[in-house]
Amino acid sequence: MMQSNDFGFGTQIRKSPYFDATVRWGAKGFSVYNHMYIPRDFGDPEQNFWNLVNDAILCDVGVERQVEITGPDAARFTQMLTPRDLSKMAVGQCKYVLITNADGGILNDPILLRLAENHFWISLADSDILLWAQGVAVHSGMDVTIREPDVSPLQLQGPKSGEVMKALFGDSIMDLKYYWLREVELDGIPLIVSRTGWSSELGYELYLQDGTRGDELWEKIMAAGEPFGLKPGHTSSIRRIEGGMLSYHADADINTNPYELGLDRLVNLDMEADFIGKAALRRIKEEGVTRKQVGLVIEGAPLKGPNTTFWTITKDGAAIGKVTSAIYSPRLEQNIALAMVSADIAKIGTEVEVSTPSGLAPATIAERPFYDPKKKLAAA
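-> structure tokens emitted (380 positions)
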């Protein structure tokens, strides 16, 4: 059995409360996300995909750090961080939001949770929003407290995840609607549970509020899930690319704006509230964008794994964009990708070429998401 010190890890990169449990359950490799280790290898990634879409997987996503915003001005301050209109966001609701800078660039694409009237969590993708929010607060004149609480999420995802949740929490958990949250306890372990996740499948996130009980929580969930085929796993690149879900630093970054990604629905320029980037996003909307995100089907032999660099896309020999995320989907039996291309060629059916590590490959611009575009599986 591998011990955590076999990996030669130091102390400057944090481990989640589930770290030792994941090693015990077969984690073979880790990546770094939000200055923490995240398990990225439980064996064959294709088997991990099938475990997810046929049964259920449990993923350590303790790296999704929470930025907690509290205080009398918490709601007003949280609205200032995002172009999405939060005025109708109820206590107990979650929303997918973008955090933008003064130029309209995307700093993060987190899930926002409203735990109480003046109590929010921003559940982060991979960037330092705690520092951003604390910096924004300094001269805001608002009465807010911004900190990182002792909270570590797990993702329980897949069609059988509801059955596992029922085994853990009883039938009443079945009332939890898509993108809503609930405060619960499991044998005295304090949790917030939400119907969210990074898989485009039915799924839940369990936010542990006591880091000393990570091992215990992991084992309880795995034991409850055994009759339903629950396996330890990692967030599936195959499934999230099929679902057209963004990976921050790959498909979006500080130089990407919401309109390039087709995420206009997350921007409300008409609301009264001011937010950072409002003027810039108004200008970008008026002027139009020069590039757009598209789906891409790449011909040729199945890709051996995800791309580790951005691949150049050409048309008639001229560079017109880049592949940001590519993978082979065993379900679709195609190489699929998310890409950023010149707006003038971003039409479905346009034929281009991609410089892959094994040479130039023909590719065609396609609809995204590639699978279950209406998110019927996740929202069911």
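The longest strand covers residues 318-329.
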